Amino acid sequence: MWRTFLIACALAASTPAVAGVMPKDSAEQVELTFWESIKDSNQPGDYEAYLQQYPNGRFAALAKSRIARLRANAPQQAPAAPPATEAPKSAPPVKRAAPAEKPAPRKTPSPEPAVPPAAQEQTAPLPAPATAKGELRDCDQCPVMVSVPAGSFTMGSNSSDPSEKPAHAVAVRKPFAIGKYEVTADQWKACVAAQACTAAGTETGNAPIRDVSWDDAQAYVKWLSKTTGHAYRLPTEAEWEYAARGGSATRYWWGEQMQKGKANCKDCGNPWKDAAPTPVGSFAPNGYGLHDVNGSVWEWVQDCWHNNFKGAPADGHAWEESNCRARVIRGGSWREGATYMPVTTRFKYDSAVRQSQNGFRVARDVK
């Protein structure tokens, strides 16, 4: 009933205010909501992705105008001279596939009293993190990893989006390591410098790398595995939620109610910027010491997308299938509101799509 009302309101409005993707009732609704997810973007590639999917769409003219304006306003840079010892190399073309829909609108919970931020504001890039007890780092350019113990938890939710149902018991039978932070721009650039990854975005330093596809993330973990001798991978969806919960069994890792200063989203308190996510680690860690599992950037995981958890694995391994194109993303982004911050939030994109809100963190097995 609530979703039907939202759909009717969105279609009636000339400039609809939609927070995600509506149910897949019609192609018009999907197009409308995809446009809503990018209409404030300052990334030309987001509008190019729209035009590829909807070349004659209702917003095609506006998308072309936005692309022209953003490119006209972009600072002009002289091309760097290639090294004298080798010929210049052309960048590989950006691969953009038809985007999957964004998540369905989430019902806003009753307003809660604001709680003062628990995390200290941090605007300067973080120094290279030191390795603490329970952490490991396999090389200077590698992500800092946090060891997560084996254990059991209830995955999903019976009181939220249908894709999160049914809540079900999962036993993660082996400990594993997962990135303390999302992969950063500098860490990604090390892979680009090794010619194993494709250049992406304009981020620098400890900003989370974004505008990368699931396929791009696979190239990164393959390079990281070859560089370190350890088998890096994306976390499974079950591992991701288990780690993101930080030992909790509540709606958010910090409790049942939304609190300011806990996540990087537009309703979640400072430090927050509209144009881009803050540097990794700017918000407080969860119980396992992981930062930015809510907001910041959507995070790719290994699993194929399924519309719900019926038949999902109960042992924490990835839910794969042959000829899988749509892959799961978790956690929301800085562009979303607080209703996307529950730890069970999930949706999908085509594995080849690069979208400016999507990034990832890595995982690997530990003995």
Question: Can you tell me the overall shape?
Answer: globular
Tally of strands:
11
Proportion of beta-strand residues: 5-15%
Helix/strand-derived class?
alpha+beta
Reported for the largest beta sheet, the result is:
5 strands, antiparallel
Helix fraction by DSSP (H/I, runs of at least 4): 10-25%
Keywords:
367 residues; alpha+beta; four-stranded mixed sheet; 7 helices; 11 strands; 12% strand; globular; disordered N terminus
Describe the model.
The chain has 367 residues and is an alpha+beta fold. Helices cover 22% and strands 12% of the residues. The protein contains seven helices and eleven strands. It has helices at residues 2-12, 27-38, 44-53, 60-73, 185-193, 214-228, 237-245; strands spanning 135-136, 145-148, 151-155, 168-172, 176-179, 232-233, 298-304, 326-330, 346-350, 358-360, 363-365. Strands 1-2-5-11-6 form a five-stranded antiparallel beta sheet. A hairpin with an 8-residue loop joins strand 1 (135-136) and strand 2. Helix 3 (44-53) runs antiparallel to helix 4 (60-73). The longest helix is centred in the middle third of the chain and has 15 residues, at 214-228. The radius of gyration is 20 Å and the shape is globular. It starts with a helix and ends with a strand. The model is unreliable at 1-26, 77-101 and 107-132 (pLDDT under 50).
Task: List the SSEs and their pairings.
Blueprint: H1 2-12, H2 27-38, H3 44-53, H4 60-73, E1 135-136, E2 145-148, E3 151-155, E4 168-172, E5 176-179, H5 185-193, H6 214-228, E6 232-233, H7 237-245, E7 298-304, E8 326-330, E9 346-350, E10 358-360, E11 363-365
Parallel strand pairs: 7-10
Antiparallel strand pairs: 1-2, 2-5, 3-4, 5-11, 6-11, 7-8, 8-9
Helix pairs in contact: 3-4
